[in-house]
From TrEMBL:
Domain (ACT): residue spans on this chain: 32-117
Organism: Alkalibacillus flavidus
PROSITE patterns: ACT
Protein name, per record: Gas vesicle protein
Coiled coil (residue ranges): 95-122
Record key words, sorted: Coiled coil
Length: 124
């Protein structure tokens, strides 16, 4: 997760630089400036803590989602395997009968073709 760390480092660096520039370029007393710097650092710390908590929550959600997804895929593959096995057991006993019927149909078609050829030759 180097890109997440880089993003966090960039946000923090940008926040510190931006706060420093705005504080240093604004004309104000030293006490006022220290107060502002303190407030900015507290806000920055709060934002950092919130980002850390959100990151932890996101990590936990991703872990949970990936576990649930893996379980779902496992269940789905088992269901598919069971369905295929059931289909095979249903079809196999009838497979020989179907092949026999197809052979009979092919023989019937061949006999019809032969008869049609005979009739055509007799008519000619």
């Amino acid at each position: 997760m180097p890109s997440g760390k880089s993003l966090l480092l960039g946000v923090l660096t940008g926040g510190v630089v931006g706060a420093s520039i705005s504080l240093l370029t604004t004309p104000s007393s030293g006490a006022d400036m220290r107060l502002r710097m303190k407030e900015q650092s507290e806000r920055l710390r709060d934002i950092t803590q919130e980002m850390k908590e959100n990151g932890i929550d996101l990590k936990e959600q991703l872990t949970q989602t990936s576990k649930e997804g893996a379980e779902l895929l496992k269940d789905l593959s088992q269901d598919i395997k069971t369905s295929v096995e059931s289909w095979k057991s249903t079809v196999e006993p009838h497979q020989e009968n179907l092949q026999e019927h197809l052979r009979q149909i092919e023989e019937g078609i061949k006999e019809l073709e032969d008869k049609m050829k005979e009739q055509n030759t007799q008519q000619s």
